[in-house]
Amino acid sequence: MTDKTTIIVHSGDMDKVYSALIIGNGALSMGMEASLYFTFWGLERLKKDGLEKGPLSKMNMAGLGKKMINSRMKKANVASLERLMQDYKELGGKIIACEMTMEIMGVEKEEMRQDLIDEYGAVGTYIQEARDSKITLFI
Amino acid sequence: MSEQKIDVTGETCPVPLVEARKALKKASPGDVIEITGNHPASKKEIPMAVEALGLELVDVKEKDGIWTIKIRK
After folding, report:
1. Which of its termini does chain B have fewer beta carbons within 10 Å around, N or C?
2. Cα within 13 Å of Cα(B48), Cβ side
């Protein structure tokens, strides 16, 4: 069986979603399978037009800090979250959306990026994914 | 059997690694992928991925900070 990486994306902060997608892409690139399980604030990033909308986890300063980091990232030629997400999907990465969070936040499937989501699940789905995984992270 | 060249010069983590993997995924067995870039960590990480994928690392060259890695699927 192929090695696997499973990541819980609990945070919706821009920098943390970057970490999750970079690690996910890295795992796929190095021959592993990968699953990203979006829950709580992370789920916000799976809403339509939501992927790039997260604040910085530190020094966001009402968006000013994010603007600064974004311009530095552009200078360093860092890929956008959308591009990383498209690459992740192209390499066969799996996206799971937490159903309970959708219920709590009052989010309907129609509001979500259904083009990205492979599965809607709960804790059992995560455990099933994680028990076969060599790497599992909570971000 | 074909040979494909990819240029990731100026790209940073994780793009060189991801582009290498995307090209390898599309390639047929026996095809050669040549990837050129200047992101320092990718020069050692792409060969690590090649080994993990069980593919053949044909050649790694570097000149003036620009490296070229050849991989056979």
Report:
1. N
2. 14
